[in-house]
Write a structure and sequence with these properties.
Layout lengths: L1 E2 L6 E2 L2 E4 L13 H13 L4 E3 L8 H10 L7 E6 L1 E4 L2 E4 L3 H15 L4 E6 L8 H13 L3 E7 L3 H8 L7 E7 L8 H11 L2 E5 L33 H21 L3 H12 L4 E5 L3 H8 L8 H11 L2
The structure holds NADP nicotinamide-adenine-dinucleotide phosphate.
Length: 312
């Protein structure tokens, strides 16, 4: 367990990612498997769930609430706003009017009186961060959200956070980070240390490539986003590089009697201190394998082996 900085929220360092729960863009998924994956996570001690209003256009929040049932007030739920999908077109919106509308939708779908942590999914490039914070403060005072954070950080965010002085009200941030994607590492450490925010990593298994089940001939259905070149982890040179990392993960997993996914997650837990690792899962089996990452540590030598092979 870890405390999210400047909050009273205590969460498991492994957070269940809710993107697959939306049932869209991740290939064919069985709803029963998704629901049972959430239940298995709770039974395994996971108390932190990440979702967004845009995942499956609300379906992820609905499925999460349904699967949690009575447990919904015993766990910590974080959701996101700011991605607006209308008539098949996606835009970003952080305006007060939109935030106030978005929060009502999320509360309804989550079937909850409040959101523990409300995250700005993407900045809209127009609304200053101070104004976003003012809107979120109003929701906080109304009891609709408890805390708020950022997602997909940039240098501009750093400048605006600096302007809050020692009173940065954003308690957390999330960005892509894994052995397959270390390009955000410096920035993530900076936001953690300079602004006292808790880092969450997404794409922690490189969208699944670090689970060890894919090879160089992997192919995805058209309804799976990973079929697109933009999902670089599964294409070209990057795929081959990732498979080299997977070989080392497999060796360590064999030596330690752990799943390959568990070792990939453990590396983040050990390497990026004070972090929360978000991992999407589509079945109870995947959750159980991912939970194997908790309660032990990699040795310095094992960390170095993975460090060396994954350096960008
Ligand atoms: N803030 C943002 O903009 C943002 C962006 C992306 C994601 N996120 C959040 O972060 C979460 C995690 O990211 P992600 O879901 O994109 O990627 P991820 O966690 O790296 O990969 C998840 C995928 O890996 C596979 N997998 C998981 N556990 C496995 C296991 N034990 N064995 C084999 N395969 C396994 C599953 O897909 P297959 O079985 O089909 O391979 C699963 O859907 C999301 O769900 C979401 O909550 C946030």
């Amino acid at each position: 367990m870890i405390s999210i900085k400047n909050t009273d929220l205590k969460v498991s360092r492994l957070c269940m990612g809710g993107c697959p729960l939306g049932g869209y863009g991740w290939g064919n998924v069985e709803k029963t498997d998704l629901i049972n994956a959430v239940k298995t996570a709770v039974e395994s001690g996971i108390n932190f769930f990440d979702t967004a209003d845009t995942y499956g256009l609300g379906e992820s929040e609905r499925t999460l609430a349904y699967a949690l049932g009575e447990d919904k007030n015993k766990v910590v739920i974080t959701t996101k706003f700011g991605v607006r999908v209308e008539n098949g077109k996606t835009t970003y919106d952080n305006s007060r009017e939109y935030i106030f509308k978005a929060v009502e939708g999320s509360l309804k779908r989550l079937n909850r009186d409040y959101i523990d942590l409300y995250q700005v999914h993407y900045r809209d490039g127009v609304t200053p961060l101070r104004e976003v914070a003012e809107s979120l403060e109003i929701l906080k005072n109304q009891g609709k959200i408890r805390y708020y954070g950022l997602s997909n950080i940039h240098e501009e965010d750093a400048q605006e956070i600096k302007a809050f002085g020692g009173n940065n009200p954003f308690v957390s941030f999330q960005d892509e980070y894994s052995l397959a994607c270390r390009k955000n590492e410096k920035e993530m450490i900076r936001f953690r240390d300079e602004f006292s925010m808790t880092p969450f990593t997404w794409g922690s298994l490189g969208q699944g490539i670090l689970s060890g089940k894919y090879d160089k001939n992997c192919k995805f259905d058209a309804n799976d986003r990973r079929s697109r070149d933009i999902y670089v982890n599964f294409h070209g040179e990057k795929l081959l590089k990732n498979l080299e990392i997977v070989e080392v993960l497999k060796e360590i997993a064999n030596e330690r009697g752990k799943s390959v996914s568990a070792v990939a997650i453990r590396w983040i837990l050990d390497y990026l201190e004070q972090s929360v690792v978000i991992v999407g899962a589509k079945s109870p089996k995947q959750v159980i394998q991912n939970v194997e990452s908790l309660g032990w540590s990699l040795t310095t030598q094992e960390i170095e082996r993975l460090e060396k092979i994954s350096k960008e």
